[in-house]
Specification:
The complex is a heterotrimer of chains A (238), B (242) and C (219). By secondary structure, chain A is mainly α. Chain A contains 7 helices and no strands. Chain B is built from 8 helices and 10 strands. Chain B has a 6-stranded mixed beta sheet, sandwiched between helices. In chain B, helix 7 crosses helix 8. The N and C termini of chain B lie far apart (46 Å). Helix content of chain C is 82%, strand content 0%. The chains are: A mainly alpha (238), B alpha/beta (242), C mainly alpha (219). Chains in contact: A-B, A-C, B-C. Chains A and C meet through helix 4 and helix 5 of A and helix 6, helix 7, helix 8 and helix 9 of C.
């Protein structure tokens, strides 16, 4: 009664199961080594500044992840391919993980530098609202269960969520005043002071990007396996 | 209408529907010519309701094609002029429980184009299914039989050329049942019908052919009307009734 | 679209349940505010604007949830999807009906809140009216879409606010500013960027809802 794709989702795929994990591990080890051992501390902020090598990348990759979710959602609404939906879900989950890490690493840095854990700074406000939008996206999927309609509803929400972002940026800018991007600019300037800092920033970026890709691929495989299990158990029951 | 008058009301090929690899429909073919009533039987969960929903244009197949009145409908959804020619009697009455019977019919009549006003068409539907006495009562307060009559009246308001019937006679008393059967047989002569039912008597009274669901596919069981006892036997073979 | 609007209003006229529960809940929220925040501190018009929109946000959830249940409970939604009308128009009709109820509630609740909370120096203005209209329109559009998306799940009452509140964040930030300005007689031009933002929010959600409702109505 059920028919499966020719290639089972569990079959070994050298690119996915060997090269990507190996490259991610290597890059991550290199990044950690650079961040904690090699690179000198920034003069003004001290040791805690090292968190920024990860923090910055986490933030923009989380953002990028949500854009991928929106794109995949549009593709799913247009063509209805299962793979597009899997990509949308995986990217939102990993994006949410990265956003969470942004929200954890941010205060860790802010406490010693700004003297507070949290402030309603435009970037922070933005991040926390984005976190809520995508948490609700995943909540809809979780509570909806195995239902084709829910996939489509989630895709609509994925698109709406990303369209909300520009409105959010404008609102927050107007609200808190144009907060100059001093922090990043200053950090980047400081980073330029030592070429090692730039190299560290790049390596950390590569490591986090590979990790993002690997997690997304794993998550997509997991959801394909999940479908197969469901189909097999239906076959057994029939 | 944009479509040739001779085009077959339903021509479905290789319909597939299901979540991921789990398939409710695994390649369904179905043809419904004008003037016929095709009965579809099968156990619960076999895909009968899913098939009706696809033909009604409220659900899209994962693969396969649906042609309604010669018009391809599965890829980009059923276009409005084709939707105007299809009617559905489902498990639920598909009405507003807080609105009175007449208001319900008027709301839905006004969604369909027609040469006469919505009120006139709603009035005629009331009459056809004997709903005049409960016309001002909210649907919430109706008995099961009257609610089913309302569902039938709503589904046939716009004189659909393709009528999809999911257990259309449930809850009707003997006289309402007779009257409805007459209406449906008269309707069949100028249109096409698909009947999903577990009731051998309904099938014997209405169907001009019988199809059965087996493992997500549809097989032709009889291409002429069947007697009640034959209908019962066909359904028992499929495990549709015990 | 007008058929859907008229139909929803006819149902509301018969039952009255949405408007009455909106108003009652809003009144209760005023009491809650008075008890939890010191009444003396609530006289600031800026605070009134914030409390008004918080009240509308929470009570509107109720209205949107109810308005989808009306469509779902006996399957009328399916009949709408089958009707030969633009499905986007179904969305706009539902938004219009929700807007009428929400705006009505806002107009009734605002003076009651102002009186009970003893707000000082009220200067009703065109800006206030514009804020109410633009704010409730956006809320109705995002809320109607959110309610439809949440309606398939078991936990729709929980999911509805979870889905709509974060989406409404930009609207809330903007509308509270313009409403506060409207209450104290700030000239309209001073808040123009905010009003443009509100208008864009309304437009984005109306258009997106209109375009995607085809997918939402189908099963």
């Amino acid at each position: 009664m059920s028919s499966r794709t020719d290639r089972p989702a569990g079959a070994l795929n050298p690119w996915r199961d060997l090269w990507l994990p190996a490259a991610t591990t290597a890059a991550m080890v290199a990044a950690l080594w650079l961040v904690f051992v090699v690179v000198p501390s920034e003069r003004v902020q001290g040791t805690v500044q090292r968190i920024f090598y990860f923090h910055v990348h986490l933030a923009w990759m989380a953002f990028g992840g949500f854009v991928v979710t929106a794109g995949a959602s549009v593709a799913y609404l247009a063509r209805g391919q299962r793979a597009a939906d899997r990509l949308a879900e995986a990217s939102a989950e990993v994006g949410l993980l990265y956003t969470t890490l942004v929200l954890v690493t941010g205060p860790l840095w802010a406490r010693p530098i700004w003297g507070v854990w949290w402030t309603w700074d435009p970037r922070l406000t933005m991040t926390v609202v984005l976190w809520a939008i995508y948490a609700s996206y995943l909540m809809l999927r979780r509570l909806g269960g195995r239902d084709e309609v829910i996939l489509r509803y989630a895709a609509v929400l994925g698109v709406v969520g990303v369209l909300d972002i520009p409105l959010l940026i404008i609102a927050i800018r107007l609200w808190r005043g144009v907060h100059p991007a001093v922090l990043l600019a200053k950090d980047a300037d400081a980073g330029l002071a030592n070429p090692m800092m730039v190299q560290t920033l790049i390596v950390a970026g590569v490591a986090l990007a590979l990790l993002f890709a690997w997690l997304v691929v794993l998550r997509m495989q997991f959801s394909a396996l999940d479908d197969e299990v469901e189909a097999l158990s239906a076959e057994v029951a029939a | 209408m944009i479509v040739a008058p001779g085009a077959e009301p339903v021509a479905a090929r290789g319909l597939v529907k299901g979540f991921g690899a789990l398939r409710v429909l695994a390649g369904v073919d179905l043809d419904v010519p004008r003037g016929s009533c095709v009965a579809i039987v099968g156990p619960n969960g076999a895909g009968k309701t899913t098939l009706l929903r696809i033909l009604a244009g409220i659900s899209r197949p994962a693969a396969g094609s649906v042609r309604l009145f010669g018009h391809e409908c599965s890829r980009n959804g059923t276009p409005a002029p084709i939707r105007a020619r299809v009617g559905l009697v489902a498990h639920e009455p598909l009405v507003y429980r807080d609105l009175p019977v007449r208001a319900n019919l008027e709301v839905f009549a006004s969604l369909y184009p027609g040469s006469e006003g919505a009120a006139t068409r709603a009035g005629r539907a009331l009459e056809r299914f004997g709903l005049e006495q409960v016309a001002e009562r909210p649907a919430r307060a109706l008995s099961r039989g009257f609610l089913q009559r309302l569902a039938l009246a709503r589904a046939t308001l716009h004189e659909p050329e393709l009528l999809l019937l999911d257990e259309p006679l449930t809850g009707l008393d003997a006289s309402a049942r007779e009257r409805t059967l007459d209406e449906l047989v008269a309707h069949r002569a100028r249109a096409a019908q698909i009947l999903v039912s577990h009731d051998a008597a309904d099938i014997a009274a209405l169907a001009t052919s019988v199809h059965g669901f087996r493992r997500g596919r549809l097989a032709r069981l009889s291409d002429r009307p069947v007697a009640e006892s034959d209908a019962r036997r066909l359904m028992r073979d499929l495990g549709a009734i015990s | 679209m007008w058929v859907i609007l008229r139909k929803d209003l006819a149902i509301e006229r018969r039952t009255g349940e949405i408007l009455s529960s909106l108003l009652l809940l809003a009144l209760l929220m005023v009491l809650v505010f008075a008890f939890t925040l010191e009444p003396e501190r609530l006289r600031d018009p800026g605070l009134l604007a914030g409390l008004l929109w918080a009240t509308l946000l929470f009570s509107s959830t109720l209205a949107f949830g109810r308005s989808v249940v009306l469509e779902r409970e006996a399957g009328a939604w399916t009949a709408l999807a089958m009707a030969p009308i633009d499905r986007g128009a179904v969305f706009l009709g539902k938004v219009a009906a929700n807007l009428v109820l929400l705006l009505g509630a806002a107009i009734l609740v605002l003076p009651v809140m102002a009186v009970l909370l003893g707000t000082r120096a009220l200067v009703p203005s065109a800006l206030l009216g514009l804020s109410l209209v633009l704010g409730t329109t956006g809320m109705a559009a995002a809320g109607t879409l959110g309610a439809a998306l949440a309606s398939r799940t078991r936990a729709r009452e929980v999911l509805l606010p979870i889905v709509t509140f974060p989406l409404l964040a930009p609207l809330l930030i903007a509308v509270v500013r313009t409403t506060a300005g409207g209450l104290v007689g700030t000239p309209l031009v001073a808040l123009r960027p905010w009003l443009v933002l509100l208008g864009s929010f309304d437009l984005v959600f109306l258009v997106v809802g209109w375009l995607t409702f085809d997918h939402v109505l189908e099963d």
